[in-house]
UniProtKB/TrEMBL annotation:
InterPro entries: P-loop_NTPase. This is Thymidylate kinase. The keyword Transferase applies. One of its GO terms (molecular function) is kinase activity. Keywords: Kinase, Transferase. The lineage of its organism: Bacteria, Bacillati, Actinomycetota, Actinomycetes, Geodermatophilales. Residues 1-25 are annotated as: Disordered. It comes from Geodermatophilus telluris.
Length: 451
């Protein structure tokens, strides 16, 4: 089963038919499984039973559609927040950032078994797979044959290959899968008689190129049967992923995270980390107005050129930040218009005009982070200005706390990983608040309904 652009799905099929020893499970994941039990509907872990203590990717779960009306509330109580996932078939994505363990958790819940990048290869395997589930090691798991086949088809149809790290787990799955179950019959139906047997033989022997070729033939046969329905499904899903959802309930409003601090505080490092790790569409915007470029000496020779350049930068960077936020993205801004509040009393007329424009046009941030460190430390890091100048700027930034309620001051003298964790926790708290259903209102649907 394909998910959002994401890390490799968690683990191999696990140990079908193993000893039944209970694996270690992260407390949040355990709470999520308990919430699924309380729905009273059938559900089962699809794969990754051996990595539930510290998942390296998604935790994939198949559930009966009967659980959906209460699923969001139950998983939210377990500590997981649902984020929009338009264009991903029946997938629902639930996230949490565990700052204590510096761990992103993601539960990928589906109600149907579908393959392909856009879940365009749909099957009727879900109901039977849930009917054959069993309790093993305290976990609801698919039957060994089902678990093995879904793992193999996930590799070949969703990913289009078997990565080197997955060759041995895939071979182990091939030895369990068998050719007498519903999944094998589906492979023979779409790929031709004997396809399941040939595919299992190739994977089991580690003949990856042959297995990938057979997977391609299976997909091609399936596509021929679907005809025009295949491109229609693909285009529909691609459009849903790229275009803003028409209903407000299907999307989160954009957010703006402003990162402030003197040179050497670590603004760019932190901004890059936030942009890369928060599981939302993100954009990085640099809003430094005073950075010199190779054209500046020439611009200064033109009357009013310097002021014009500053105003152009203001309009461009502010417009970029506003545009991305309006598109529903998380915008991380390195430096911010509030730097204008630190202007020296003797600033030139051009600087005063530029600063006024910044404050007038700049958007209000949803999260305001100040990286605070002693001037001596910042000087050692970057070697710019002097320790005294940097300390003076540090104190000027700290003085803004009274003017800017909600500013979060982070100790930038701490190790970079600690600063990143603290910042991620603050930003994720904002995301959780945005994703929460309105009081007394329905939960966000998080995606478009399928037709």
């Amino acid at each position: 089963m394909a998910g959002q652009a994401r890390a490799e799905a968690v683990g191999a099929p696990g140990s079908p038919g193993g000893t039944g020893d209970a694996p270690e499970v992260h407390p949040t994941i355990r709470a999520a499984f308990d919430a699924l039990d309380r729905t009273g509907a059938a559900w089962a872990l699809v794969r990754g039973a051996d990595e539930l203590r510290r998942p390296s990717g998604d935790v994939d779960v198949l559930v009966d559609p009967a659980a959906l009306p209460v699923l969001d509330a139950g998983l939210r109580a377990a500590g997981l927040t649902r984020l929009p996932a338009a264009g991903h078939g029946s997938h629902r994505f639930y996230h949490r950032y565990d700052s204590a363990e510096d761990l992103w958790l993601k539960l990928d819940v589906v109600t149907e078994v579908a393959f392909g990048t856009y879940q365009e290869l749909r099957t009727d395997l879900a109901a039977g797979a849930l009917a054959r589930r069993h309790l093993q090691g305290g976990l609801q798991r698919l039957a060994p044959q089902d678990e093995a086949w879904l793992y193999l088809l996930h590799q070949l149809l969703d990913k289009g290959t078997i990565a080197p790290s997955r060759v041995e787990p895939a071979a182990a799955a091939a030895r369990v899968a068998g050719t007498d179950g519903p999944a094998a019959a589906l492979v023979d139906r779409h790929g031709g008689p004997g396809s399941a047997d040939r595919l299992l033989a190739a994977v089991g022997a580690g003949r990856v190129e042959e297995a990938v070729r057979l997977g391609g033939e299976l997909r091609a046969g399936w596509a021929r049967e679907l005809g025009l329905r295949l491109p229609a499904r693909t285009l529909g899903s691609r459009a849903a992923r790229r275009l803003p959802a028409p209903r407000r309930a299907d999307r989160l409003p954009g957010s703006l995270v402003a990162v402030l601090g003197p040179d050497g505080a670590g603004k760019t490092t932190l901004s890059d980390a936030l942009t890369a790790q928060v599981p939302l569409p993100t954009r990085y915007v640099y809003m430094g107005m005073w950075q010199e470029t190779r054209w500046d000496p020439y611009v200064r020779r033109v009357p009013g050129g310097r002021l014009g350049r500053l105003l152009l930068r203001v309009v461009r960077s502010v417009g970029e930040a506003r545009w991305h936020r309006a598109r529903g993205r998380l915008v991380v801004v390195d430096r911010f218009v509030y730097d204008a509040l630190l202007a020296a009393p003797g600033s030139s007329l051009g600087d005063r005009v530029a600063n006024a424009a910044m404050l007038r046009l700049g958007p209000s941030p949803d999260v305001l982070l100040l990286l605070d460190a002693p001037g001596e430390l910042m000087f050692r890091r970057k070697g710019e200005h002097s320790p005294e100048v940097l300390e003076e700027r540090r104190q000027a930034y700290l003085a803004l706390r009274d003017r800017l309620p909600g500013m979060v001051v982070l100790d930038a003298g701490a190790p970079a990983d600690e600063v990143r964790r603290r910042a991620l926790a603050v930003v994720w708290e904002r995301v959780e608040a945005l994703a929460a259903p309105p009081p007394g209102g329905p939960a966000r649907s998080g995606g478009r309904r399928r037709r």
